[in-house]
Amino acid sequence: MKKITVLLADDHGLVREGLHALLQAESDIQVVGQAETGSEAVERSIRLRPDVVVMDIAMPVLNGLEATRQIRQAVPETQVLILSAYSNPSCIEQVVALGAAGYLIKNASIRILAHGIRQVNKGLRFVDPSIVPPPAGTATQPAAQEVVYGNGALSPREAEVLQLIAEGLLNKQVADRLGISAKTAEKHRYSLMGKLGIHDTAGLTRYAIASGVAESSRPLSGGRQVSVSGVSSRRG
Fold first, then answer.
1. Helix (H, G, I), strand (E, B), or coil: what is residue 230?
2. Which of 7, 11, 16, 151 has minimal CB crowding within 10 Å?
3. 202 CB contacts (<8 Å, ≥6 apart)?
């Protein structure tokens, strides 16, 4: 029997290794690789061509939303199953619009994760049974040029800049990271503010965190614990 090949993409090594160990116990699933950044997830998906990528949203370098879009464009036969700490409907709608086949919350059991992997591998939609699925008729094909965040459609480059701003990078640092000029980075920042109607860096950061594009550096009140059958990580 051919096993379902899986790539694990999460920026927490402990989570990746724990999921790896748990999924390897499934007779029909084989973990073939891991990635700790969104850009690594794209590169390794193209190289390894796994059946399913299990993807976190709040990934460094390239967030999981943009990584999902790029994977679906480059390797359309690979399905993406989002595994996230966020359960708000807007996140689900965004990842479905970008081509993800499923969405799972990190407090799910390993049994549900394995079931989700099997479902999306069959070409079926899978949404965590504990949350409300996206509305019927939501687009399932990845957007060719734009990613929708709240009030405006951002280009892939603007989405990258939004994440880096939320990570605390200044224009020069954003420029260095993306290989563009500081003037271009500043132009993208102002474009973001105009599209989103947010006119300060703190507001952009709060928006990126609320949208699941970036992680908060501070825990929620009491520290929310997210886990998949014993594999846990505290996230903001």
1. coil
2. 151
3. none
The Cβ of residue 27 has, within 10 Å, a number of other Cβ atoms equal to: 8
Which residue type is seen at 80?
V
Render pLDDT for 181-192 as a digit per residue (tens, 0 to 9). Answer: 989 989 988 888
Superfamily of chain region 4-127: Response regulator (3.40.50.2300)
Q: Around Cβ 151, how many Cβ atoms within 10 Å?
A: 10
3-class SS at 12?
coil
Task: Show Cβ contacts of residue 75 under 8 Å, excluding neighbours closer than 6 positions.
Answer: 45, 46, 49
* Tokens describing residue 210: 């609320």
- Report residue 87 as tokens: 């359960």
In tens, the pLDDT along 49-93 reads 999 999 998 788 888 888 998 999 999 999 999 988 777 666 677
| pTM, entire model | 0.65
Judge: domain 151-210, CATH 1.10.10.10. Answer: yes
Sequence-distant (6+) residues with CB within 8 A of 151 are 195, 196, 197
Residues 6+ apart with CB under 8 A from 85: 58, 105, 106, 224, 226, 235
Q: What is the mean pLDDT of residues 135-149?
A: 44
Contact yes or no for 196/207 (Cβ under 8 A): yes
Q: Residues, the chain, total?
A: 236
Where do the structural domains in the chain lie, given as residue ranges?
4-127, 151-210
